Amino acid sequence: MQKIYDTIIIGGGAAGLISAVECKRLGQDILVIERNPRAGKKIVLTGKGRCNVTTNNHDLDDLISKYQRNGKFLYGAFSRFTVADTLTYFQDTLHVPLKIERGNRVFPESNNAVDIIYALTKEIEDNILPNTSVLNFKTEGNKITSVVTYKGEFQAKRFILATGGKSYPITGSNGDGYTLAQSLGHTISEPKPALVPIICKERWVKKLAGLSLLHVQITAEQNNKKIVSKFGEALFTHEGMSGPIIIDMSRQVGDALEKGEVKLSIDFKPALTKEVLDKRVISDFQIYKEKVFKNSLRKLLPSSLIPIVVDLSEIDPEKKVAEITREERLRLVNLLKDFKLTVLKLDGWDKAIVTAGGVNIKEIDPTTMKSKLIDNLYFAGEIIDVNGPTGGYNLQICWSTGILAARSKNG
Ligand SMILES: Cc1cc2nc3c(=O)[nH]c(=O)nc-3n(C[C@H](O)[C@H](O)[C@H](O)COP(=O)(O)OP(=O)(O)OC[C@H]3O[C@@H](n4cnc5c(N)ncnc54)[C@H](O)[C@@H]3O)c2cc1C
């Protein structure tokens, strides 16, 4: 007779792995089915290889408010397995020392995402079936009896679907979990790439590719009205802009783009008013009065930005600084406070940090993660229609929903 597992977990990402660890700790006989040769492929990429495990935000209401869409659905999971529980679980149960950095971001003390994967897999290594994709389910009435793979069928009393979304498909999450859920009658809110870089029309941005801007204010505007404005770190890419503040505003930019043109306005000197910046420019021009304009901005701007600013200022680059008019100088000041780029589109699935959309939350019990349609099916992680900003918020979804799914019982 074929073995019947207590729980089969489909997908060995963050959500599936923590579910599996917890199920095993609860004494369950488990199997994790993972299509990749190794589990946790996406975790390696998180936090630029350092894994921003969670956010050190312990105020439940404030935490929930960060998840603009469907945040309230997460009350059930976040109140049952809190941020504090997450920190304790990683530090005391899985023995990964953590540290808190700027912006409440929590990282492993080692700065190495691989330590998180090791901690999540060491107890369940023998329970993972790699190189195996779940193709479909077999059901009887309202229950799944087995999953079908090319390596055969596997039976269990209950199933946790943790196949992720559609973002970064190279890591294994190609969205086929949605098809699996649909085959069981679940509906899917249209998946869209979220937390993505922005592609701009101006072709000269590629000359700035790699230039990182540390303390800038970027405002997205439509018809000269502010849509969203963020202060912090951004980055020029070959096609446009990326970095934390761009990625965090990408959802609002994407929504606005459906209605019309969107511009990005970069304030390179947000700490200075126009008047103070003008005084600063006057003082620099005094220092460089014998030079030509193109050689007068090195105290003010990174070198790769200077030729672009010189060009856009429409001041003759060869003009002697002493001969620059007040009008020209004010034009330069305005440019530094309101440097415009035109948004062409958002980048796609290959660069999206997460998926917006997924399994309809109305069909999942928020207190157990159990399907309301199938008696022995649970969901965990990015496959659910919830997503948060950067800063550890998306992995926290995986930890809380994953643990909750593990601890919930059929019935
Ligand atoms: C570059 C990058 C950096 C990020 N950095 C952070 C960060 O620092 N902090 C943060 O909070 N979030 C971060 N995120 C988001 C976070 O990584 C994800 O939200 C999270 O990893 C999703 O976990 P998951 O387990 O739900 O899905 P996934 O990690 O996508 O795992 C799903 C797993 O299921 C497997 N699978 C899929 N279909 C099948 C099938 N049919 N059969 C068998 N197996 C299947 C896949 O191979 C995959 O291993 C980042 C994302 C990216 C792309």
UniProtKB/TrEMBL annotation:
<protein>
    <recommendedName>
        <fullName>Aminoacetone oxidase family FAD-binding enzyme</fullName>
    </recommendedName>
</protein>
<dbReference type="Pfam" id="PF03486">
    <property type="entry name" value="HI0933_like"/>
</dbReference>
<dbReference type="InterPro" id="IPR057661">
    <property type="entry name" value="RsdA/BaiN/AoA(So)_Rossmann"/>
</dbReference>
<dbReference type="InterPro" id="IPR004792">
    <property type="entry name" value="BaiN-like"/>
</dbReference>
<keyword id="KW-0274">FAD</keyword>
<dbReference type="InterPro" id="IPR036188">
    <property type="entry name" value="FAD/NAD-bd_sf"/>
</dbReference>
<dbReference type="InterPro" id="IPR055178">
    <property type="entry name" value="RsdA/BaiN/AoA(So)-like_dom"/>
</dbReference>
<dbReference type="InterPro" id="IPR023166">
    <property type="entry name" value="BaiN-like_dom_sf"/>
</dbReference>
<feature type="domain" description="RsdA/BaiN/AoA(So)-like insert">
    <location>
        <begin position="192"/>
        <end position="354"/>
    </location>
</feature>
<keyword id="KW-0285">Flavoprotein</keyword>
<feature type="domain" description="RsdA/BaiN/AoA(So)-like Rossmann fold-like">
    <location>
        <begin position="6"/>
        <end position="407"/>
    </location>
</feature>
<dbReference type="Pfam" id="PF22780">
    <property type="entry name" value="HI0933_like_1st"/>
</dbReference>
